[in-house]
Specification:
Elements (H helix, E strand, L loop, with lengths): L2 H15 L6 E6 L4 H17 L1 E9 L6 H15 L2 E6 L8 H20 L3 E3 L4 H13 L4 H4 L9 H19 L2
Parallel strand pairs: 1-2, 1-4, 2-3
Helix pairs in contact: 1-2, 2-3
């Protein structure tokens, strides 16, 4: 994918699917990895055209020693782009389903950061491998057709995600008893 086509795709998503009105603030989740850094570059490039304020935010789960250094690089890059940068450190206890708990902690931290800066939306970067991994994990867990739908352009809020997951678990456990 060329840089121009990425700019076009992100621009369409922000103006169309995300329905961000002019003068809105967009929180861009960054990890320091190539996907989120590309998203930061593109949103910063589109900010004036779409009349958006871009704020970058990174979350350190405390699970990898290099994460803090990666966020330092992201902060430096954001500064070079003229984008405000914030970060949150969250504690995720080790144990079963660590990635899921880390993801929920990250989404809660991003939601708090978005609220603090008045952001109307949070942009996260995902690539095709993320989608494939999500489908495989859900397939292995026995998800049906609805559960296999992955990474929609606009995700529900963290509280709605939690309610939906709990509701789906209740339906699953009641059908398991049949």
């Amino acid at each position: 994918m060329t840089a121009a086509s990425l700019v076009t795709l992100v621009g369409r998503a922000l103006a169309g699917e995300a329905s961000l009105p002019p003068r809105s603030t967009l929180l861009v989740a960054v990890s320091g990895g190539p996907d989120s850094m590309a998203l930061l570059d593109v949103t910063a490039r589109l900010a004036s055209k779409l009349e958006l304020t871009i704020v970058a935010h990174g979350v350190d789960h405390g699970l990898r020693a290099e994460a803090a250094q990666e966020l330092d690089l992201a902060a430096t890059h954001a500064k070079q782009l003229g984008v405000r940068f914030g970060r949150t450190r969250v504690d995720v206890e080790h144990g079963g389903n660590l990635q899921a708990r880390a993801r929920e902690a990250r989404y809660r931290a991003l939601a708090r950061a978005a609220s603090a800066v008045g952001a109307r939306a949070i942009a996260t970067a995902h690539h095709q491998d993320d989608r494939a991994e999500t489908v495989l994990l859900r397939l292995l867990r026995g998800a049906g057709a609805r559960g296999l739908a992955v990474l929609p352009p606009r995700a529900p809020s963290t509280s709605a995600r939690t309610r939906n997951r709990r509701g789906m678990q209740r339906r699953s456990s009641s059908s398991d008893r049949s």
